[in-house]
Write a structure and sequence with these properties.
single chain, Immunoglobulin-like, 0% helix, mainly beta, 137 residues
Length: 137
């Protein structure tokens, strides 16, 4: 059984699907610059509303060099998801190697002030994947 390059995780009623693709037209392999686009779908499959506050990414390249990226919201937004609602966005990640991985977490807050972390499972940045699969998030 082969492992999917995508991820699909659910934490505290928040489902996160992630998939990435290589962007050859914005990459320069001879200069060790590889750009990847990734798409995230966040869906509230739980029974209570939750608002995304911040993100934390752990990015590893093929040389096992680690970069942690933290910040408020995602792509300048702070989606507040009622049960059944979803939010999608696309962003990018540069690497100095032709492949790597991303994983991390989002911090959410419920209406009652309870904060909790939602896992984003590891997904792969691979220079041979130039299109997002049809069944990807």
């Amino acid at each position: 059984m082969s492992q999917s390059p995508n991820s699909d995780t659910t934490t505290e009623g928040i489902r996160v699907l992630a998939a990435a693709r290589y962007v050859p037209e914005q990459s320069e392999p001879d200069a060790h610059h590889y750009l990847f686009a990734y798409r995230i779908e966040i869906e509230n499959v739980g029974e209570a509303s939750a608002k995304l506050l911040s993100r934390h990414w752990v990015i590893l390249n093929a040389d096992n060099d680690r970069e942690d990226v933290r910040g408020p919201g995602v792509v300048g937004e702070f989606p507040d998801l009622a049960p059944g609602e979803r939010f999608e966005y696309v962003s990018g990640c540069p690497l100095t190697t032709s492949w790597g991985t991303m994983e991390g977490s989002y911090q959410f807050e419920r209406a009652d002030g309870e904060k909790f972390d939602v896992a984003v499972g590891r997904f792969f940045l691979v220079s041979t994947i130039t299109e997002l699969p049809v069944d990807a998030p």
